[in-house]
Amino acid sequence: MPECLVLEQVSKRFGALSAVANVSCSVQEGEVFGIVGPNGAGKTTLFNAITGLPFHADRGRIVCFGSEITRMAPGRIFKLGLARTFQKESSFDRLTVEENLWVGGAYGSRELRGRGLREMTGKIEDELELGALRRRRAGELALFDKKRLMIGTALMSQPRLLMLDEPVAGLNPAESERLTGLITDLHQGGMTVVIIEHVLPVLFGLSNRVLVMDAGMTIAEGSPEEITRNPKVIEAYLGDPARGKSDAAPS
After folding, report:
1. How far apart are CA 153 and CA 100, in angstroms?
2. Global confidence as pTM
């Protein structure tokens, strides 16, 4: 499969802190690529550097769908077919669910106007089971519903690559299972997904390949099966087997 996202020696510093250090990886079209690591490992910083929101990488090279985006404006990156969600749930709280989706569609595609915008909105509402909430204000939604709305707003741009930052964080097991099912449906429909997630059963169940970070650096990359057997991962994230306990339990 062709590569849709390539990172070469990507780095980001904040003063003396090296938040991301020389990370290289690639994402193939049609796969789910997982990113995991302890708190502070640099996962969200890497997402931010890729999308240019709210900052670019200091060093390295990032290519998306054949175009270098290392210093590209976020709006232009978005137009290439890359959309993302954020660790903190974000929406226009005074607008309804439907109006939030309209904003995503109008910003993300110049072709979505009038009837086309309404049709795409209905399609996303059906896919994410938001139809019954279309008239509700976003600020009134429960966490699970707001997470679905955030994904739906990203999907309104009709992306080819969807980046999800901890989509099931804070959800109960039943909600996590439902949201995982929705992400699986999107993937099976042809969407390429990059996902950060601390809930390891969710991440390993969804991902074809996983990148493990610690202290801003890559410590392992491979299939979920390979990752769970990697001694560096066991020590850094799952815990030191010699002590018989985990130092960084998933949250």
Report:
1. 7
2. 0.90
Query: Mean pLDDT of successive 10-residue segments in the chain (251 residues)?
Result: 95 97 98 94 97 96 97 93 92 96 78 80 95 96 97 94 97 96 96 95 96 95 94 74 41 33
Q: Looking at this protein, which amino acid is placed at residue 243? A: R
Instruction: Say how far apart CA 126 and CA 191 lie, in whole Å.
Output: 17
Burial class (CB in 10 A: 0-12, 13-18, 19+), 14: exposed
DSSP for residue 94: T
Burial 129-164 (b: 16+ CB within 10 A, else e): ebeebeeebbeebeebbbbbbbbbbbbbbebbbbbb
CA–CA gap between residue 95 and residue 101 (Å, rounded): 10
